TrEMBL record:
EC number(s) recorded for this UniProt protein: 1.1.1.14
Cofactor: Zn(2+)
Location of the Enoyl reductase (ER) domain: 12-339
GO molecular function: L-iditol 2-dehydrogenase (NAD+) activity; zinc ion binding
The protein's name in its UniProt record: Sorbitol dehydrogenase
Database matches in Pfam families: ADH_N, ADH_zinc_N
Keyword set, alphabetical order: Metal-binding, Oxidoreductase, Zinc
Organism phylogeny: Bacteria, Bacillati, Bacillota, Bacilli, Bacillales
Top-rank taxon: Bacteria
Assigned protein family: Belongs to the zinc-containing alcohol dehydrogenase family.
Oxidoreductase in keyword set: yes
Amino acid sequence: MKALVKTELGYGHLEVLDRTEQKPLDQQVKIEVKYAGICGTDLHTFEGHYKVNAPVTLGHEFSGEIVEVGKDVTAFKVGDRVTSETTFYVCNECRYCKEKDYNLCNYRKGLGTQVDGGFAKYVIAREESVHRLPDNVSYQSAAMTEPLACAYHAVSKINVNVGDVAVVMGPGPIGLLVAQVLKSKGAIVVITGLDSDEKRLEKAKALKMDHVVNLQQSNLEEKVKAITDGYGADIVMECSGAVPAAKQGLSLLRKKGAYGQVGIFKTAEIPFDMEKVIQKELTIVGSRSQKPADWEPSLQLMSQGLVDAEALVTEEFYIDEWDKAYQHLKSGDGIKALLKPLS
């Protein structure tokens, strides 16, 4: 079968190759991929900034149909419409595994990074990681379950009350999904971006976010004060990985507010105003990827129409059109691109 493979580390080295089809082992299923989403980490992998176990087929956001099951599989059958968590292997012995926090296991191996992923016609997943799709969730939407689960995981770290004012810094795919999850919990959502985010800010308006703010054209702090009677935001979710956004986020929060860091910074060590954290008694939380408990709620949010993941898809390409997909996303015109397998 044809697969989009990162053949070695460094810039580029992404090729469509013939890969041998694998059969599922005892507790595994074989999925015929319908769509696979391009994640920011796939872009970083292509550019040489993110290390994977090359050679490896990329793609960890996907949906498809089960075409074969291992002999010990009991929960799924051929023909089931499914998606899968990225987790392919964990140690099952550490305290994090025992609590189903697989995202924190030191020995975890993920699809599309350490094990062949979904940029191919078929992918092998372990039964425990697979989730059946609600009938009204399309394959396109389902290919977005993984980033939505990441967004759901981030929001679950913070107590969200109906009427809370929540500022989302960064209108990329994760920011737009975080904003929708917050909205589903009854928050008043303010989402921010720059001139270069014009298309994404337009999408935020189409998704009926309460306030959409271009930071280069409006004063965000004045806006937040106006809608909070001068107190400041209850919640800030930083989804851009931009240092100025992190700094501003702390200033926007009210006393006893909550700050969630979702975006990844280019440099791990950044200046942070701990005086604000202390004087305001702020709650600061980080969020890494997703875990099993985040997947079924994410599928239900799509099924109930509370999150429109498919609305973020701006283009579809075949796996041999990587260069077009890459340019689409890097140009600023694209929000999310899906790849389709070759026959």
